[in-house]
Amino acid sequence: QGALNFTAATPAIAIHEEIKPAEVAAEKLPILVSQNFFRYGDRYTHKNNVKYDKYVTDEFLTGVVYGCHIVITNPTSTRQELAVLLQIPAGAIPVARCKETRSVRVNLDPYRTTTMEYYFYFPVTGQFPHYTTHIAKSEKHITAAPAVVLNVVNKLSKIDKSSWDYISQFGTGEAVIDYLKAHNLHRLNLAKIAWRMKDRAYYRRVIAILRTRHVYNHTLYSYAIYHNDAPTIREYLPYNGSFVSQCGW
Asked: Are 168 and 129 in contact (CB under 8 A)?
């Protein structure tokens, strides 16, 4: 029972794998592991022109892609050959060619750090436990990231009303103008305010800011045609050869 007979037509190598409980290593190795979650496409924030990680800790939205960033450090003078077990949270679905579970072999030189990531999303709400990153050596368990339970909701209870995502969609026109004046435009998805550009006076204010800051945005500049703004059309056309070729000479 449970036996399998296989006759190979050519020389072959048979490999057998199984999942078994891992024993805890008798010798404690000071390998460090941390993991943090971030929202895909909204990973960083900037303060005083310094970039900071923007980790998600409280609530996760359904239908939104998140990533998990893992950092593993070898603070010893010995090269460590490790096995790293990665697994997406319960209730989640992997994306970007990631897998539900995978094991990665890592050879970590002395005083070195390595990182890895995987991506997922939640289709439904709920409280979902996460089997966090676990590390083993010589098939002995040595350490793991702290266990967590992820809270998945349809609507966030706390909204960052100072973020570009919020201000661009729900802020007043003046709030958007103030934000554009105070922040690095190259870090913003300017297309988010395209729906505001139908207002001719507002369009002129935004384009004036972009022009003063020497920033070109194809979507916003395209409204020059909508408003028949000849000077801005001259700036837009050199970047839109396909449109020019359809106009003829």
From this structure: no
